[in-house]
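Table S2 (continued). Query chain:
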Amino acid sequence: SIGNLRGIVQRGAAAYLDYLEENADPLHPIRLLNDIDYVMSRESAADTLEIILRSVVEKFDRFLEYNSTTTHSDYGEQLHCLLDFERLEADYDRQDWNLAPIQIAHDVLARTGRASLAAEWQKYLGRKTGPMARSFLTKLKRLEKVHGMRLPSVTDRLNEKFIKPLVLDSILALVRPAMVEIRSGAKPESFTRLEVLAEEYLSTSSGSPTDIQPWMQELGEEVQIVEGDLHAPVPYESNPRALAEIAIPYATIREQIDLWEQA
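Corresponding output:
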């Protein structure tokens, strides 16, 4: 279970190996223990085991998907197949993190009503990342062929091609104007556009069968936020009871930090 895995990670893989040795069953020998000091050193075995366990714990949703959608999970020695998919996804995530400033800029443009400029920004990112995105998909197809398995959530992630989150930004940005239109009885232009984008987004997402798709969770959260704002009797900015901003001098902050360090 995830609780047991987290416990092993917290105590350390070396302590877990000690536990296995102390509670060894002669009738059911553990190959890992037998190989220690013959195939690899104990330190190397502990380090490798800890990396594997941390990979499973930090991406436990991927492990659940692997466990429920593939036959590979019936054989413990096939776990490396899951780790290969996770390694590729982690590489994609690192590249995606480097693009965060561009994605943030697009979100700002979309939420401030600059839809045409946001669309041009999205096209720019698509041109910039196109070759890299295709390279990741090629590597994914190679992995699927070599291991004879698929992980839909990893496929969805790489099929984003670094630009799909920008489409989600545009969808979320349309929630507020769409809800305002419906409440006011105005022509539902934003709502119609929201429906079209959501259908397109859904058509290119297969998702994991074990979880609600993250983008649908984000959409639901955005609806709740907007509903709260629309039901608020008095906007925060115009509320006379709202506390005024208080500026704290640097000297005061420094004094508090010094006191904290002495405590």
